[in-house]
Amino acid sequence: xxxxxxxxxxxxxxxxxxxxxxxxxxxxxxxxxxxxxxxxxxxxxxxxxxxxxxxxxxxxxxxxxxxxxxxxxxxxxxxxxxxxxxxxxxxxxxxxxxxxxxxxxxxxxxxxxxxxxxxxxxxxxxxxxxxxxxxxxxxxxxxxxxxxxxxxxxxxxxxxxxxxxxxxxxxxxxxxxxxxxxxxxxxxxxxxxxxxxxxxxxxxxxxxxxxxxxxxxxxxxxxxxxxxxxxxxxxxxxxxxxxxxxxxxxxxxxxxxxxxxxxxxxxxxxxxxxxxxxxxxxxxxxxxxxxxxxxxxxxxxxxxxxxxxxxxxxxxxxxxxxxxxxxxxxxxxxxxxxxxxxxxxxxxxxxxxxxxxxxxxxxxxxxxxxxxxxxxxxxxxxxxxxxxxxxxxxxxxxxxxxxxxxxxxxxxxxxxxxxxxxxxxxxxxxxxxxxxxxxxxxxxxxxxxxxxxxxxxxxxxxxxxxxxxxxxxxxxxxxxxxxxxxxxxxxxxxxxxxxxxxxxxxxxxxxxxxxxxxxxxxxxxxxxxxxxxxxxxxxxxxxxxxxxxxxxxxxxxxxxxxxxxxxxxxxxxxxxxxxxxxxxxxxxxxxxxxxxxxxxxxxxxxxxxxxxxxxxx
Length: 617
Ligand code: ADP
Prior knowledge:
By secondary structure, the protein is of the alpha/beta class. The protein folds into four domains: 4-141, Signal recognition particle alu RNA binding heterodimer, srp9/1; 154-273 and 283-331, Rossmann fold (3-Layer(aba) Sandwich), CATH 3.40.50; 337-407, Orthogonal Bundle (Helicase, Ruva Protein, domain 3); 418-610, CATH 1.20.58.760. Helix content is 53%, strand content 13%. Strands 6-7-9-10-11-8-12 form a seven-stranded mixed sheet, sandwiched between helices. α1 packs antiparallel against α4 and α17 runs antiparallel to α18 (502-517). Residues 1-8 and 141-153 have low confidence and may be disordered. Adenosine-5'-diphosphate is lined by residues 168-171, 208-214, 309, 343, 346, 371-372, 375.
């Protein structure tokens, strides 16, 4: 646990302020209470009171007389009186005559007593409570979160992250690149003595949720060094100069704790390219300049390594990427089938799962999912198991949680009318039938007409038999046919069309357009590139780079592909209308059909057809 120097300095200041405040409070209270308790009188009044027999006791010190009146309800409201001692030879006689009790008190002892009761005791009590309060504050500040700079930005600091490379699954290449950094942090002397320049920083690039933060923590965990983490956006504030001072602070603290890892998440928030920004952003530029200056300035042989993460590497300023700064780039991409399976394995470690759980099939059904999605799925499955009163997670829990993460929860309270249900069933079976009857398609895994919260009234799930890295033109065409199969079935059987195909239309158009603009799959444009992908690690938006005239032709070509595929899907459905009706009826009855049930119906139907043909012959 760290205690920042800054806080220690502040603490000293707080103690001074607090003590001053305590003294002032005690002074005011003393003044006030002595005014309430004592009253000054003239010596002549004192003599008068003796003569009038109004006094019961007098304490005589070197220069004061403290007088206790007999009757508490006198004009002095029961207060104790005092007056200065004057040179009165007859005082003792007067007291004796009036039968007043008197005693002498030493000046020192009365001073000591009042010092103790009026000052030392109350101040000690106040300081005691103050120290308890301070201790609490201290604990809070030392628990890993520190105030950073003169502002509210938070840097998270951990002495031991407790994360190892074994906790990060499916990112073998990334781990390999980072092992070197671990070794360097472990044995920096080995590198220094041979004269090697040590790496200052590495940039982790990849889509959100693929484990970049986790990897950075694992590097710190493996090297057993402290881990500082701050988000790039925390540097940028409204006030110019604030971000730069934070950068300075960060590097100062990191060097004090060396060897250590400093992790800057979302570095694109400060590291955006400086040129071409018309409006200009002084604060961001200053912060970036400071970061560059600090990276150049610090001595890497001390063992400070800066890791930064981004999912938009293309917007980063080139200056950040040159040697001596973030000169290493580690790609942390979406995991493949094997990667997904091992991530699932890592996350099921702490969860009780049944022995017959098949993580491979779950990995197969989650193409495109990142580590964070998979971790979420395992958790959803565990929650479902508890909800259903089970003590361990079974395959069904996992399969359901995949669907929850991908399509949302089942919406049982959404009641479809019979006509709507029929339309949805025919639509979904349309997709499934085209998928089953075309050659270059993935097998159907499940068809369902149970509505889900993410908008789908039903869906057909296809699962690839193996992970594919290349997609052929035939496969793309067949994929579009499957997407358009839903609407085709509505047309053929119901003679009416509905809004249910909007998502299919969007996806089919996107696929057809990419065939024209990016994959060179039309004769018209041959191998000309007309679009490129922006923000590859985020949503992967295509950006057109062609003239408006060409764009119009692209639209024509796209339309041609779609029309062709629609026609193909429609004719398949027409030819197999009986089968469509049979499967749809079964789906309306059961609401969900698994891949095998679906294939069994097709097989049974084909066998029967064959039989009748044989008997006719
Ligand atoms: P990023 O920084 O890339 O956005 P994180 O590192 O924050 O992603 O990942 C979020 C969570 O997802 C992690 O805490 C972890 O539980 C899980 N996760 C992501 N990738 C992996 C992986 N490769 N192996 C194991 N868990 C992972």
